[in-house]
Amino acid sequence: MAIRVLLVDDQPLLRTGFRMILEAEQDLAVVGEAGDGLQALDQVRALQPDVVLMDIRMPRMDGVEATRQITGPDRNGPAKVLVLTTFDLDEYVVEALRAGASGFLLKDAPANELVQAIRVVAGGEAMLAPSITRRLLDKYAGHLPSGEEPLPDTLHTLTDREVEVLKLVARGLSNAEIAADLFVSETTVKTHVGHVLTKLGLRDRVQAAVYAYESGLVRPGAQ
């Protein structure tokens, strides 16, 4: 079964370019397009895509609110949201991740990265690009805790090792890199990540990274 993709962007030329890239792949099928968030909601209900490639800045309804409605508790379908960003302009990416997006990708990313990101998100994983994540969170450090606030009570449900793993996830390390850093197996890391997500009520690694920064556990610019 091909992965069903809905393209959401207010620029028709960009949608055409994305369509050409994706339709060249045998396992991907573009099932529809939308020019704003309201159209996206209608298309999601009608077409039931697996992945929504979502722009942020659009008329009528932006990508953050559309993402919130597509992935929220009243969601109607299996759609995952992959947010598109120009990075230098989109200060709302963290909001989109908090709203339920499974990851984000730069609009000028190479075609192979776009294709792979869609496959990753469709498979239920988070598209967490380490370098972009760090730069993004560092850029908007002013919106995050200063470090003087007490850590939230939910963090105390984690073991010391789980806290270590959460910090490394927030800094963009893969399971293999975390395993090497902590001298444990990748299977052990996967188990720890699963426990972190369950205990904190988070959906994926993206939300875990945002949580770690927002809670003050990890601070922008820290090594």
TrEMBL record:
GO molecular function: DNA binding
Residue ranges of domain Response regulatory in the record: 4-122
CDD domains membership: LuxR_C_like, REC_NarL-like
SMART domains: HTH_LUXR, REC
SUPFAM superfamilies for this protein: C-terminal effector domain of the bipartite response regulators, CheY-like
One of the GO BP terms on file: phosphorelay signal transduction system
PROSITE patterns the record matches: HTH_LUXR_1, HTH_LUXR_2, RESPONSE_REGULATORY
Pfam families the record matches: GerE (PF00196), Response_reg (PF00072)
Keywords assigned: DNA-binding, Phosphoprotein, Transcription, Transcription regulation
Stretches assigned to the HTH luxR-type domain: 151-216
Transmembrane segments: none
4-aspartylphosphate found at: D55
The name this protein goes by in its record: DNA-binding response regulator
Species: Streptomyces klenkii
